[in-house]
Fold this protein.
Amino acid sequence: MNALEKQLGQEGLHARGIETLQVSVGLRCNQTCAHCHLECSPARPETMDWDTMSAVKSAAVQAEASLVDITGGSPELNPHLRRFIGELRDTGLDVQVRTNLTVLRERGQEGMIDFLRDHAVGLVASMPCYLEENVNAQRGPAVYQRSIEVIRRLNEAGYGIKGGLQLNLVYNPAGAFLPPEQEALEQDYRRELQMCFGISFSRLLTIANMPLGRFASQLKAEDRQAQYMRLLEESFNPATVPGLMCRHQVSIGWDGTLYDCDFNLALKLPVNHSAPDHISRFDPALLACRRIVTGQHCLGCTAGHGSSCGGSLA
């Protein structure tokens, strides 16, 4: 039993509503990042079809969700993405897309930035450091410069500037350590990116590396898995528990399976404890108060300042 489970006791962790539906529209990605918990790559064929997207739209309306958070892989590589966003926005739902930035330079993405702007879609963009060597080591050669180029284009389209559309950047640690304090690191990002490139963004979100997928493989190869898990356990912060993202959202896999979070999706641990586990059986009343499936990996969200898809928690 880990520190989180000890605090929760026999009752376990329960959801407190459904504010967000997080939708993984596929595992195909134009990059193969070293820390990816879903092990996405250009070779992954998994893609959400239109019928599942239509069911997700109905579920979001039924749940009266505040936000539909679209992720992947690279969501932009799903051939139905524009239609999906258009129909979500037509129903009045707020939409956010998680992008790795460089995919917006790919063939077939012409006009995507303008489309996202015209539909008032918020963006959460991977930028794991403001230093070029760290980004390229984690995400691949030349990724840093390509990312800077795309942020410039997004700024020109009205993203990340004062009074403009949301462009939040995401920091991930480059190794087996926890993110620093979010607000202080954000100031470092602002200073360096503005001074060096004249670019701006809305907010910085710090997210811990989860002991899953490629990062877990890296830890095992370096014989540091036990050390990292010990760090997470010893850094448990009870103040993070009320804000854990699983308590306020439902994650939907590319095939319509329901999960408590994107990390449970990576582990193929669907919603359990008598709550419906597929979009075809979506029931907002049952899901809003469901018991959440927890495990050792949950310590990644409760360590230090906490970690969620929306950044730090405490």
